[in-house]
Known about the structure:
The protein has 116 residues and is of the alpha/beta class.
Amino acid sequence: METWTVQTPDHTRWAVMGLRGELDLHAAGELREPLLDLITDRGPWLALDLSELHFIDTTGVGLLVRLVHNLREKEGDLALIGPRGQVLRILRWTNLTRLFPVFDSVADVVADPPAD
């Protein structure tokens, strides 16, 4: 079963991928190819909707950190949407909420002005 969905809102630089369930060793391995495909198709501006993600482990955190550095090298960025519960606690405890732009909803991402 897929644990992600992809949205391609118009008039925004961001591609949006929604994650569900857990972002752990198994899920991170399954996400590698879809993430690379999405970045190739849409460019280096990626927003991950974490509102339906209930758990993240060190592998998932490592994936986010590697991904943001990779996207910024390509003059893009990684944003997070709606992290909550255990996921938000881990991101705060590791001080990673300062590393990523964090939006409350997909609508907030879509409203973010395109890059010049």
